[in-house]
Design a protein that fits this description.
- By secondary structure, the protein is an alpha/beta fold.
- The protein is built from 12 helices and 11 strands.
- It is 45% helix and 17% strand.
- Helix 4 runs antiparallel to helix 10 and helix 5 crosses helix 11.
- The longest helix has 24 residues.
- It holds the Pfam family DctP.
- One of its GO terms (biological process) is transmembrane transport.
Length: 339
């Protein structure tokens, strides 16, 4: 009896081992991004991995590397191109002058919500207006956050003149130009470095959507908020071309089925929901929130913002890029996507 039971146990163990081998993932994808692991956007990106794993019946495994643990925020796109990461989510504006047409959606007046802005950006890509900027990677989907505002520590900003002499973190050069035009002094910093810089007094404030004020704990430091809709950032999730090309056709289809507008709008919607969390947190902490009437269209703000936007578009046109065409299309899509 002992020998029989031992034989059965050995066979069961061997069977388990065989099953584990059969069920082992055929493709392992390393997904790099900069959001904190416990943030809402990180969790939404993780849900993309979960969907891919489920739809491939476990043949694709997605391992998430948040908080710059695999690649720095400014280097994630190139890390995907070189194969250090297989998938990566980036802010296009973190690499200046590399995605200038994509960054047109950063300009005031185009993005009103994350979901609507994501629709605009994804449609621009789907229609071929941005193809030239992504020749070296396989694009999965694009998205934007909702309107970005000005958040300062100690000093309220109710009009552009109040920005004079203030060191304000800007996420991209485009946003920096907008701030400089308004009289502020823009400082370039990746998102993960903002908290320590404000804590030390290196900067007086930040430009961020409400979501990021909670995700990066900036509401702990900034107590003055100017809700003006200054800008909105563009994001893209890309995949290494060789990784994608080397996958079996049925697994490529799993990736293809999790590409494009559905995920673009899902990320944008997540931003909108998290914006509500960020602003509610600030209210509960007793902060001052100055809502600029009509936002970027306010007469005190619009002339400067419009001038800087026009300079950006004309500068790209002078480089031979179809910026005016893309900007006009983005404005049309802004209305269509918001309908």
């Amino acid at each position: 009896m002992y020998k029989k039971n031992r034989f059965i146990s050995l066979m069961a163990a061997a069977g388990l081992s065989f099953t584990a081998t059969v069920n082992a993932a055929e493709v392992d994808l390393r997904f790099a991004h900069f959001w904190p692991a416990n943030s809402g956007i990180a969790k939404t990106l993780a849900s993309w991995g979960e969907a891919v794993e489920a739809e491939s019946n476990g043949r694709i495994n997605v391992e998430i590397y948040p908080s710059q643990t695999l690649a720095k925020a400014t280097q994630t796109y190139d890390s995907v191109v070189r194969g250090i990461a297989d998938v990566g989510a980036i802010i296009q504006g973190y690499t200046a002058n590399r995605f200038p047409l994509s960054q047109i959606v950063e300009l005031p007046g185009i993005v009103h919500t994350g979901e609507q802005g994501s629709c605009v950006l994804q449609k621009l890509y789907d229609e071929g207006d941005l193809d030239s900027e992504y020749q070296d990677a396989h694009v999965l989907f694009m998205f934007t956050h909702g309107p970005g505002h000005i958040h300062t520590k100690g000093k309220p900003v109710t009009k552009p003149e109040d920005l004079a002499g203030l060191m304000i973190r800007r996420p991209t050069v485009v946003v920096g130009d907008l701030l400089e035009g308004l009289g502020g002094e823009p400082v370039g910093l990746p998102a993960p470095d903002m908290y320590s810089a404000m804590q030390r007094g290196t900067i007086n404030g930040v430009t961020l959507p409400w979501e990021a004020m909670a995700s990066f704990r900036l509401n702990e430091l900034a107590d003055q908020h100017t809700q003006v809709g200054l800008y909105s950032l563009a994001f893209v999730v890309t995949m290494n071309k060789d990784t994608y090309a080397g996958m079996p056709e049925d697994l490529k289809k799993v990736i293809d089925d999790n590409t494009g507008m559905r995920w673009a709008e899902k990320l944008g919607k997540a931003y909108d929901e998290l914006d509500l969390v960020g602003v509610q947190q600030a209210k509960e902490m007793g902060h001052t929130i100055n809502v600029v009437e009509n936002g970027a269209e306010n007469p005190a703000w619009k002339p400067t913002l419009q001038r800087v936007s026009e300079q950006y578009i004309s500068g790209l046109d002078q480089q031979g890029l179809p910026a005016a065409k893309v900007y006009e299309r983005a404005q049309t899509l802004s209305s269509a996507c918001g309908a």
